[in-house]
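ugh ok fine here u go
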Amino acid sequence: MRKLVFLIAAVIALTSCSRNSAKIKGEFTNFGSKTVYLEKLGVGTSEVIDSAVATKDGTFKFKIKFDKDQEPTFYLVKVDGNNFVTLFLERGETVRLSGDATRLERSYTVNGSKTSEDIRTISNLLNSTISSLDSLNQLHASPADSIEYKMGKVFVNCKREFIKFIITNPKSMASLFAIYSQLPGSTNVFGSLDDLNYFKLLSDSLAVSYPKSAYVISLKKHYKQMENDVLLGDIISSKKVETVGIPEISLRNQYGKLIKLSSLKGKVVLLDFWDPANQESLEGNLGLVKVYDKYKSKGFEVYQVSLATKAPWIAAVQRQKLQWICVSDFLGSNSPAATVYNVKSIPANFLISKNGDLIGRDLFGNDLESQILKALK
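structure:
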């Protein structure tokens, strides 16, 4: 009987220990006896918490002890700076990880953690999208507008798949990984005010599953800030722009020169908001180039504000060979200029008279050209 009591006590102690830890068992090919690093991800922070020297056949182990109040956490298993795997570990999980160390992010497999397996699925889609964009970037022989259109289509398809995953798995931390994913050039897949509902869905759903998680608390703050931006945009309505005049914008062009919107007074100006990842924006530029070439010598100018980060914006300006004034603050949809002008979707534009008065908003095609012609007389 005493032996049975001791045995039960030992089992309970062992179970308690396993519930306060998580394990990673890995095997990397093309690696040998090199060092693998384990990095813990916080909100905007990262910290190397352990390392292991792999055996000759590339196997290694990590045991992660969870503090008493520690929530499930994101980790990186890293070979070097740009070669790593993202995992999300909960108490008691044992994760088995394998892959080719020379191209870890694209080759790895993982099991033992449902969330980490879902992160792998999202990473596959992200890597496939990046490969498609890289291939299109190398098609120098194709017309620039055709390349931009195809790149926009690739981006939209990627985002659609992410949206499907988020809507289907709103209580999964893998959805948090998806909504904060980035493409090359620090281009966010999500982040515009049009994405507010997806941030709200995740914020509300994850707060039920992980109420004390620092990641979820940060997500909620982000969502609230986006919500405030929308409310501010509602207050500064398009009608108010008409009654109080044209608010000033002062942004830098692709060469770093600061250009004020007010400096163009005396010309008929089209204030245009766009994003190179938006297909309508790209197609709109093609038509606008013809209008610009036709009327620029008669006193017409375009002041185009990009709602994208720096790299994709400059690349698009160069590909489409845009000759008008191109400016940006690299803040994407969070640009104060977009908020002040109540821009909730793109493309969006404002036609401004020689005297600085608003002629019309969201004019395109023949309507735009006829209003330009009338204003130039």
